[in-house]
Amino acid sequence: MAKKAAFFHTTLATPAPMKAAFHERYPDAELITILEDGVLPEVIANGGLPTPSIVKRIVEYGAIAQEQGAAVFVCICTTLGIAVREAQKAVSIPMLTIDGPMLKQAVQSGERIGMLITFPPTARTSKAAALAFAADCGCEVTVDVIVVDGARDALNAGDKQEHDRLIVEKAKEAAAAYDVLVFAQVTMLDAAEQCGSLSVPVLTSVQSGLEQLAAYFA
Fold first, then answer.
1. What is this structure's pTM?
2. Residue 183 belongs to what H/E stretch?
3. Which of 6, 13, 64, 77 holds its CA 20 to 30 A away from the CA of 87?
């Protein structure tokens, strides 16, 4: 029987590319896709923080994934890192975040971290997740969240090129002030590939986030 993973999404923008990336890395594994697009509006209404109801639902989705035979549950939304940590207490299978390895690498790469985001309501929880990994690793870091204005609107309007251009421009402006830049959203991967000439490392979540699953499909 093929081994399974479950990916939890909060936006329609990520299931297709993440499914393709997963099957490219693990062609013999199965993927369960779970989508709830009501999470982000609820986070926005709660001042940028996940509600207890969201944590409860993540627990329920984790239990459903386990019942369907998933070996691991992965949250693709960067807004929910702390919520996933809470949900793990009530679910038997491992509950991971796609950006966990990226954040761990970031806090071990330098004291000054610049975190680029395109969705302002994720600012508080994305920073909290990075600081949680710093605490796990015993690292003292500062994390500055940098909002790329207009990028999300461009992406929602179907202008991926403008979305990427704005991110690259902001990264170039910010690079000198930090030891490492973190591109928080999964949708920022293409923009990161255009930043190879920057003077600091640029970290993204997709490849390292997928690589962490290797132990479950060995």
1. 0.89
2. strand 180-183
3. 13
